[in-house]
Amino acid sequence: MTPRLDAISIITSDLAASLAFYRRLGLDIPDGAEATPHVEVALPGGQRLLWDTEAVIASFDPDWQRPAGGGERVALAFACDSPEEVDAVYAELVGAGHTGHMKPWDAEWGQRYAVVLDPDGCGVSLFASASPAAK
Length: 135
Known about the structure:
- By secondary structure, this protein is an alpha/beta fold.
- 22% of the residues lie in helices and 31% in strands.
- 22% of the residues are buried.
- A hairpin with a 5-residue loop joins strand 2 (38-42) and strand 3 (48-53).
- The radius of gyration is 16 Å and the shape is globular.
- The model has no long low-confidence stretch (mean pLDDT 86).
């Protein structure tokens, strides 16, 4: 038997804000999920994205502490259909009050790329092929 990646987990200090952010990115998060201490969403391809509050983690791991320095505890990347969609999604998230970390740019590796921080300071990349023919 070989272990396989099944889920990515986000430990959040503000579950409602985190879920609202990822809903804006198109994840199908059930209404009312904010009222639960643990949330799971199935992703295309079979993986799952999980959320737990810091309080839940601390309840079963009394030695747990929020990582010092914040940021980059987890980083996710969302594929967009076009360079224009990267720009539009970035603008929509920043316009909704989320922190833009790297404005959209044409990366040397052939993608339109941008990074927005989620409510817990984790980097969320938005990317698309810079060439319409190379999706």
